[in-house]
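Human: If only I could read backbone structure tokens as easily as an amino acid sequence. Underneath my words sits a plain record pairing an amino acid chain with its backbone structure tokens. Take your time, and here it is.
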Amino acid sequence: QTQLEESGGGSVHPGGSLRLSCTASERTLEYDSIAWFRQVAGKEREGVACINANGGVITYADSVKGRFTIARDNARNTMYLQMNSLAPEDTGVYYCAVDGGNRRGSDCLISYVMDYWGKGTTVTVSS
């Protein structure tokens, strides 16, 4: 059973940075698209960033472009989300996800196409 485990969430002041990590077990990620989503209570889960299997196509939500960076390390079976210039509206539960269909672009930011999910890590941005 594939499991994804996130880490790196926490509380920061506006303008701060956090780096989220997500490691997979029982599955090799090298042929998958991997993505980060976030969710605020009462709202739908939002696709934040996605990178396809070979790393050639990276897609970001408009709200995080220029501030967030997604990366993958296939040797470590791990994905990352570097978040800079954090703002209160970035607060939420962040989830990593895997798409075995290796979708790319905006198709990779759709929650229902994802095959596996982590349990989430909480990010709080407040002064």
Remarks:
- Residues 4 and 118 are 5 Å apart (CA to CA).
